[in-house]
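Figure 6 in text form: structure in, sequence out.
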């Protein structure tokens, strides 16, 4: 199933139609997405039996972030082999973890202010936790995943690297620096959930073009390794890393500019459009 946030209301999506969850369930479930994630097993059982094509037509521009208030937002650095190669760095033995503060989350068609001329793009597969857990085994990890969505890990590189050690969390948490969307897609919707085409463009320019099969640590491994230390909560986001092509490691460097529109796409999920202002 495909779940979205349509003008602040939780909906099931089928193509260009949206089924309002509160109305379709006769009030069994409310309009807020966060309680649905906290009651994921019961909600998923109900939603799986619904026909979203009976919903109303909607305007995709009205979609907000499918998880508007995540309790925790994790970022994973250097998690694609081709990105490590372009950066001239060895593959990590353990996930390189940082946080993106929840106030940076915005929707799939947002305008995002650029705080400087050193802002970079990183298209990412974002994992959304549905069932909380601590010390989750790799073989059980997907049972704790509500779904997947598209994300951009926008980064202000001057702040990120202004000191030693780098300030990853601060440089990646300006308002709007964590756009996600357009929908949350449950894992059963994918033919191969570990091999999805991923990329982003600016106009006719291809910025990144990769596959999630190139991850150093898979989704299941990330869930297991994060939960080995942290209790994962319903609605938590995991920005799982980015493929090659980011601007900071190019020569010459390629940063974002006002007026650009970054289109981010992941196979089986959809497209997100971020306007930089």
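Output sequence:
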């Amino acid at each position: 199933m495909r779940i979205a946030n349509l003008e602040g209301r939780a909906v099931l999506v089928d193509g260009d139609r949206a089924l309002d969850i509160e109305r379709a369930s006769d009030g069994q479930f409310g309009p807020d997405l966060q309680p649905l994630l906290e009651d994921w097993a019961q909600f998923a059982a109900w939603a799986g039996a619904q026909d979203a094509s009976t919903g109303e037509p909607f305007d995709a521009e009205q979609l907000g972030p499918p998880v508007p208030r995540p309790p925790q937002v994790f970022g994973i650095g250097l998690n694609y082999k081709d990105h490590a190669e372009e950066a001239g760095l060895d593959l990590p033995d353990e996930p390189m973890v940082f946080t993106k503060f929840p106030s940076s989350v915005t929707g799939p068609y947002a305008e995002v202010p650029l705080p400087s001329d050193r802002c970079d793009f990183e298209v990412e597969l974002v994992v959304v936790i549905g069932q909380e857990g601590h010390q989750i085994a790799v073989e059980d990890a997907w049972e704790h995943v509500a779904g997947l969505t598209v994300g951009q890990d926008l980064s202000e590189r001057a702040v990120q690297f202004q000191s030693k050690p780098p300030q990853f969390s601060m440089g990646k948490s300006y308002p709007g620096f964590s756009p996600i969307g357009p929908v949350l897609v449950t894992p059963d919707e994918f033919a191969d959930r570990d091999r999805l085409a991923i990329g982003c463009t600016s106009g006719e320019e291809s910025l990144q073009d990769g596959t999630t099969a190139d991850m150093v640590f898979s989704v299941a491994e990330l869930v297991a390794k994060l939960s080995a230390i942290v209790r994962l909560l319903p609605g938590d986001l995991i920005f799982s890393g980015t493929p090659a092509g980011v601007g900071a490691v190019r020569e010459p460097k390629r940063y974002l500019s006002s007026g650009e529109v970054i289109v981010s796409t992941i196979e089986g999920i959809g497209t997100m459009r971020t306007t930089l202002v």
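Caption detail: The chain has seven helices and 19 strands.
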